[in-house]
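Methods, example record. To illustrate the input and output format used throughout this study, we show the complete record for MBL fold metallo-hydrolase. The sequence lines were provided to the predictor; the line carrying structure tokens was produced by it.
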Amino acid sequence: MNWTQIPLGPLQTNAYVLMNEKKEAVIFDPGGNGPEFIKWLNDQQISPIAILLTHAHFDHIGAVDEVREAFNCPVYIHEAEKDWLSDAAKNGSGRFLGNASITARAADEIIQEEKTIQLGSFSFDILYTPGHSPGSVSYYSATEGVVFSGDALFKQSIGRTDLPGGDHNLLLKSIHSKLLELPEETIVASGHGPVTTIGEEMDGNPFLSGF
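The corresponding predicted structure is encoded as:
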């Protein structure tokens, strides 16, 4: 399998396309630029089978409906944010974008617990990593050695917690108890910025000193 990082939307949020040899793919956080993103997927002859959302902030959901409709694939979200997709106040677009607010239809699949999910040939451990938002989850692929962490953990930084539902101490607990427990060579595919590894962040992330 291989994966591609594609910044999309008003905040250039990282979408990720994880693809197998049959060109079936799982899409993480399609944040915007729907027509261009769909064209790229079609040009590459990629067939998405699911959209996995790390959380429902507006910059991660802007192209959800367009991709879902283009490829008839289900959308997954944690139950704590199941009503955020359709609510501009909760997903933050009402606050930051005003009349240009972003919404999407309800998710097709609701994540209620940590578990392993199998989507075709793809397998992920769902890790509940709240703090940046109440329903933040990370998707860990042991076979690929990568965790799609959304806005929980970044290279040399962590997610902001000053938005509604944010909790700094809870985020640190999530990072410590879930993400830093992964093998140190695990690639961290973050919602913004470059990728990193668990080991690099354990050694040098200034927000994690003391862990």
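Annotations derived from this record:
The chain has a mean pLDDT of 96.
The first helix runs from residue 34 to 43.
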